[in-house]
Predict the 3D structure of the following.
Amino acid sequence: MKKFCFIIILISFLFAACNESEENKEYASFLSDEEGKYALYVVSDDAITFEELQENDINNVKTFTQEKTMEDARLEEIEEAPTFIVFDTKDKVYKTNNRDDLFKFLQEH
């Protein structure tokens, strides 16, 4: 009986791990590759530059991907422009449609 319970628990953990990796699979190409640094995904016709980030005392962004139109957006969850999504090394950590809110989040984190 103990072996049976152990096997059931083990299988449950395996399924949970598979589900988590499926959820993050969509974000894989957007994740930051450096601990403590963020990656941005931006859908906006108004470009964000590293210079603009530095002018706003934001130094925790290593990379970003920018799409100018909704048609170019590569994530299904994008429903409107502008949309700004912040990723760490594991997952999406923040999403907003407001540039000022994005900058505030990045300044505080």
Q: What stands out?
A: The longest strand covers residues 61-67. The two ends are 48 Å apart (CA to CA). DSSP finds three helices and four strands in the chain.
